Amino acid sequence: MTFSVFEYKVQVKEEEEISILSTCWTFSKPETEISSYFYKGATGGFFSFAITKDWASKNFSSKKFKNSRAIKKFLNGERGSYTWMDIAPKAHEMGAELSEYLEQANSPETDMPALKKKSMKLIMEFFDNAFDDSRITDNISLSNLDYHNVAKAEKIILQNLHLPFIGIEVIAQEVHTSPTKLKSNFKIVFGFSMLQYHKEKNMLLAMQLLQNSNIHVQNIALLTGYDSAGRFAASFKKRFGQLPSEVRF
């Protein structure tokens, strides 16, 4: 299981950049090859947890894990990998605390019980949120090539967030696979269709631009691929339950 926190720069004007924070969880079975792409110039870190069968047998029997049976089935199955974006609201702060302990991991004064406790807390934050959809329970395995193609498709989407969605057919052609297969596999891995993923990333970007910059709402709409502030505001309210003007006051 991997939790990653990355910060990258978005050019919003010729003379202005803004830092955007992105968090991501990936839960994978052994023998699964994972491909990842990141924005050029991004900085950040990974927290990787290797779960052994002995650890799983001991800890997933605990009442803390409401879905222990599904987790064990997943770990005992064939290859597979699923990815979640920003599903655990407290994970970034927990990761920052854990980083401080890890920097002292080789020191004789390291508080190992506290390090284990904070690691477990971060793991629990993932499992408390990972079953909002049914992907772990459904337990669908793809080939390593399919996972690689899905990662390439994600990269293409991320490179074109500032434009309206370019279309499944265009992406599939660049990935060299069929639109139907790519569409199905992408949703298995990310829990979103490619169009939904594009919209979700843009909404998360818009929220951070509203919170961390003075960019006009009209310009944020353009930066996130909308041709009008009205359409952007409607999509934003549908996603977050409030208008852009209510976020920035």
Automatic annotation (TrEMBL):
Superkingdom of the source species: Bacteria
Name of the molecule in the record: Helix-turn-helix transcriptional regulator
Keywords: DNA-binding, Transcription, Transcription regulation
Native source organism of the sequence: Flavobacterium psychroterrae
Domain HTH araC/xylS-type: 151-249
Coiled-coil ranges per UniProt: none
KW Transmembrane (keyword) present: no
